[in-house]
Amino acid sequence: MAKTTTEHEEIRRWAERNGGKPAAVKRTHQGGDVGIIRIMFPDAPQSEHGDLVEIGWDEFFQEFEDRNLALLYDEDGLFNKIVGRDTAERRQQGDHDAAR
């Protein structure tokens, strides 16, 4: 079962414990725009991070807050998905078809 959080330190601890780094989708990361953010795992087998560019945690969390996002993640694995907080709230209320 995926856990949901908006807590910066919880996200950072989980990501770093699993070898994760803050990233942005390269084609959207232009000029002063961070673009679409992700957590990448460059050392994971079959990691497809060629389209990502590493960014700093401050930049990541600024975009995370500006876009009102939440992280769904597996505490014991690498699964993660960044979603809107409204979607996270609907999923917590049992609407597992909610997506964004």
Structural write-up:
This protein has 100 residues and is α+β, with helices and mostly antiparallel strands. The protein has one domain. The protein is built from three helices and six strands; from the N terminus they run βαβββαββα. The strands form two sheets. The chain has a three-stranded antiparallel β-sheet, sandwiched between helices. A three-stranded antiparallel β-sheet has the order 3-2-4. The longest helix has 10 residues. It is globular. It starts with a strand and ends in an 8-residue tail after the last helix.
In short:
The chain is α+β, with helices and mostly antiparallel strands and 100 residues long. The chain is built from three helices and six strands. The protein has helices at residues 8-17, 57-66, 85-92; strands at 3-5, 21-25, 37-40, 52-54, 69-73, 80-84.
Number of domain modules: 1
**Overall radius of gyration:** 13 Å
Note the run of SSEs as H and E: EHEEEHEEH
Number of strands: 6
Q: How confident overall, as mean pLDDT?
A: 87
Question: Please, how many helices?
Answer: 3
Q: Beta fraction of the residues?
A: 25-35%
> What distance separates the N and C termini?
18 Å
For the largest beta-sheet, the strand count, sense and barrel status come to: 3 strands, antiparallel
Q: What is the helix fraction of residues, given as a range?
A: 25-40%
- Poorly predicted segments: none
Strand order of the largest sheet: 1-5-6
The computed structural class is alpha+beta
Morphology = globular
